[in-house]
Amino acid sequence: MAHEHKLEIFRGLLKFKSNTQKIWGVLIFLTIVTAVEVGLGITKPAALTGSYFLGMKLLNWIFIILTLVKAYYIAWDFMHLRDEKSSLRRAVVWTPIFLVAYLVFILLFEADYIYNVYKDGFVAWDF
Fold first, then answer.
1. Is residue 67 part of a domain?
2. What is the pLDDT of residue 3?
3. Are 45 and 59 in contact (CB under 8 A)?
4. What predicted TM-score, i.e. pTM, was given to this entire model?
5. What's the rounded Cα separation, in Å, for the pair 127 and 117?
6. Helix (H) or strand (E) holding 38
7. Which residues of the chain have pLDDT under 50?
8. What are the CA-CA distances from residue 127 to residues 97, 118, 123 (Å)?
C-alpha cells in the first residue's frame, strides 16, 4: 500500500510538484537559516551582543532558536514526521524542546553561580 507524502512546507504556503522539488526547497530553507547563523556569528552585531535576555546575550538566544528551527524542519520533512499520527509527532517534537529548555535553564543557573563565586574572590581565576 503506497502512501503519498505531503508536498508542501510552511503549513501549505509553498507547494511542490514532486518529492525532489520538496527536498530541494527544504534544503534551500535550511541553507538560508545556516547562512544567517554563520553571518551573525562572523559579524556579531553590537546591538545583539550588548543586550541581555534572561542572563544571556540576545545573539546566543538567536543561535539557539535558529538551531531548534533547523532541527524541527529536519525531523519534520526529512524524517517524515509530517505524515505520522499526531501523538507520535508530539512525543518526538515536544520532548526534546522541553529537554533543551531545561538544559538551558540548568546551564544559565550554573554559569551564574560559578561567575559569582569567581567574582567574589573565593577562588582565583587561574585557569
1. yes
2. 54
3. yes
4. 0.64
5. 14
6. helix 19-43
7. 1-2
8. 34, 12, 11
